[in-house]
Amino acid sequence: xxxxxxxxxxxxxxxxxxxxxxxxxxxxxxxxxxxxxxxxxxxxxxxxxxxxxxxxxxxxxxxxxxxxxxxxxxxxxxxxxxxxxxxxxxxxxxxxxxxxxxxxxxxxxxxxxxxxxxxxxxxxxxxxxxxxxxxxxxxxxxxxxxxxxxxxxxxxxxxxxxxxxxxxxxxxxxxxxxxxxxxxxxxxxxxxxxxxxxxxxxxxxxxxxxxxxxxxxxxxxxxxxxxxxxxxxxxxxxxxxxxxxxxxxxxxxxxxxxxxxxxxxxxxxxxxxxxxxxxxxxxxxxxxxxxxxxxxxxxxxxxxxxxxxxxxxxxxxxxxxxxxxxxxxxxxxxxxxxxxxxxxxxxxxxxxxxxxxxxxxxx
Length: 363
Description:
globular, mainly alpha
């Protein structure tokens, strides 16, 4: 999914499509997850890990293969829908499974820290591999290579044992009941602010690189440097998780992110952009494991999948709209305006992050 998300907008730009069209294309990666997140969470609560992962692998491989066979804009949008939906359903099943493996609070934070290394590593492998393949052999070869990666994921998942099912409530609760908890609402808000930063970086870097006539490999390397930094910080999180509370990590990361986004437009070369991407990766990479650990503490065990789905639905509803907003804002305000507006919004979210310091637990 990360490779496709880097390649498809670049192909659209080279084909002469506008920034608004590219924003629409990137929004398709999140659109499916808006509608599938809650059903996928409930499906994972009922069926565990393997069955949701099997459907996800099939959808992701099909989406990338379609782009390789017919690399035209409508098909790229369909591929984005399939790959984005597959990634969302897969991560819900994985996060639920890992959360259930933890036996105490420290282990819960450490488990999500280790799990977060996977997406961070994929954020490096996907864009960099895709960029190199595009420069060497063209877009079709890059899409074909991406179609093979979900099959590797399935090979690994078949070797993971299922966990025993968790009892379901006698009366089926409504997903929206979870929003009655102010701590859950606050956590979703913080998660939304930070996921918007990821969307901004993913959306703007290819446009900024295209404006500055950087090669696909250079753009992929900038995105890849972000992912390497996120991977590095997540390697240290199991140690940090035993020493710092979740809210402390989140507050510091949000403050650093706001400063870096404000500075990013002043980075005039590929090297400077790469350095800023590294620092941004360090700050944003530390957040998701802390968010996931907090979420598992404030929701009942039998509703973890549903809570994960509701979280994913919320941030992806934003991800559907925000790339189109970024595209329109970029056309009016320029790339710098998009960065500065996002930095301001993250600053506004610091108060909510500070209020996460006290929470109840269901563990």
